[in-house]
Design a protein that fits this description.
By secondary structure, the chain is mainly beta. The chain has helices at 28-31, 33-36, 101-109, 129-141, 166-174, 318-321, 325-328, 443-449; strands spanning 14-15, 69-70, 73-74, 85-87, 116-118, 143-145, 150-152, 181-191, 197-208, 224-234, 242-248, 255-261, 266-269, 301-314, 341-353, 363-369, 375-381, 387-398, 403-413, 418-424, 430-432.
Length: 452
């Protein structure tokens, strides 16, 4: 486990083309901004905004917090604060510049129940000092090669803290700050058009992040940046099913996955556990690459960096995770009484299907928090350019790392009037743990432990 320890100019219209050879990161002069105070060590603007609604970054939360805990997640973060204001269907025009298309659509779709309770902003993002040191090196050494789906020269921190291209922002999300290893349980819950909630699955999962291992270095790193293995606990007919996957920065082999099927009593390769394959963990209510905002390989899209803007986004959602499942959910969305929204700066990235590729969602718009590089909101559009899907990321602070993490996300199908609550942590357990042997994250290990 870890020991605890102004950009100002908006970039507009930066379009990523297919790179020839390697694309270097930034100059030494630019990278120095990460250390001299102009930028935070993670690449965000250190200063607040003009009216003070976004405060300056002061180091984030790095120490344990008092109060109730969900494993290693404190659930009483800023518990005594009251909303500054509410955004509803009735007054949303006043705040239109701060809202995504998806947020506006939900306000209009559910005018009697959906709202934004907007609280004072807190820039709680933090990381261990070794991560800050790695980020400073990554700014100079990390580059994209062999097309935009492969990177090199990075380790244990944000790879592109001063991004020049949309794909760099997306890599920052995929390689955002994590603990070396975490174990937790979660539920995937599907909400129907009638407002009825159904448990798709309840699971226990282990995640491991090799670039964040103690002593990891870019030269010896295999390129596998995340590996996970989960086993289904409920419902009974799915109990014992298991999936293991390993994700890599190598675009030729981005994900290897194996699935254990209880009825077949065998492990098989699972090459389709990616992209726009319906996510069987959520009974197909979302796509695999909609998990955690975006999860998987980047090669299906071209990525355009639109720039940076201020928005209202879900933030510091520890209190939501402390609620009972029944309290955290409303019929068609999360319960506004428990979801905290704040004003923050985000990077905006547009994704459009690359030439010769296909995806069920032809275009998407991503909003990525500048402090954590976690995806805050996503809007998905159909072939006619009509808004079809929208996602809310639910970030929470874990001082034990320290870091702000993203597991829970809510995917709304605006046409089908459904929602998928992915990796809901409420009433479960979440622990920062010591890394396991990487052999645990293999098909052979799953096969050896199959019980039925």
């Amino acid at each position: 486990m870890y020991k605890k320890a102004t950009l100002g100019v908006v970039l507009v219209g930066v379009m990523l083309g297919a790179p020839q050879g390697a694309l270097a990161a930034v100059s030494a002069e630019e990278a120095a901004k990460l250390r001299n105070g102009t930028l935070t060590p993670m690449g965000a603007e250190r200063a607040g905004n003009a009216d003070g609604s976004i405060p300056p970054w002061d180091g984030g939360i790095t120490k344990p917090l008092p109060g109730n805990m969900l494993g290693d997640i404190p659930t009483q973060l800023f518990a005594n604060e009251k909303p500054l204001f509410q955004v509803t269907a009735g007054n949303m025009a006043e705040y239109a510049a701060l809202l995504s298309d998806g947020t506006k659509a939900l306000l209009q779709k559910y005018p009697d129940s959906f709202r934004l309770d907007v609280y004072p902003g807190h820039r709680t993002a933090a990381a261990p000092q070794v991560v800050y040191d790695n980020i400073a090196k990554n700014a100079l050494d990390c580059s994209i090669k062999e097309g935009w789906d492969t990177i090199k020269g990075c380790i244990g921190g944000i790879p592109f803290p001063i991004p020049q291209r949309g794909v760099e922002v997306m890599w920052n999300h995929l390689l955002r700050v994590e603990a070396p290893a975490i174990d937790y349980r979660f539920r995937n819950i599907v909400g129907g058009a009638d407002g009825v909630h159904t448990l798709a699955t309840r699971n226990e999962i282990a995640f491991q992040y090799p670039p964040y291992y103690q002593g990891a270095n870019a030269k010896d790193w295999s390129g596998e940046y995340a590996m996970f293995r989960y086993t289904t606990i409920e419902p009974p007919y799915k109990s014992g099913e298991s999936l293991v996957a390993r994700d890599s920065i190598n675009g030729k082999y981005p994900r290897q996955a194996w699935q254990y099927m209880v009825g077949q009593r065998r492990v098989r390769r699972a090459p389709t556990v990616s992209y726009d394959t319906p996510d069987f963990v959520s009974s197909g209510a979302n796509y695999f690459d909609e998990v955690q905002g975006f999860f998987g390989a980047l090669d299906r899209y071209e990525w355009k960096l639109v720039g940076k803007r201020e928005m209202l986004i879900p933030y510091n959602a520890n209190g939501l995770l402390g609620a009972k499942v029944s309290e955290a959910l409303d019929k068609h969305h999360l319960n506004p009484d428990h979801l905290r929204w704040e004003r923050h700066r985000v990077w905006e990235v547009e994704a459009s299907v690359a030439e010769g590729r296909r995806h069920a969602v032809p275009s998407r718009r991503y909003y990525i928090d500048e402090d954590t590089w976690a995806i805050a909101l996503v809007d998905g559009f159909d072939k006619k350019g009509t808004l079809w899907r929208t996602t809310q990321g639910i970030p929470y602070v874990v001082p034990a790392i320290p870091a702000t993490l993203l597991r829970t996300s809510v995917v709304f199908n605006l046409e089908g009037n459904t929602m998928s609550v992915v990796q809901m942590l409420n009433e479960e357990d979440f622990k920062v743990v010591s890394p396991k042997s990487e052999s645990y994250f293999t098909g052979n290990a799953v096969a050896a432990e199959g019980v039925r």
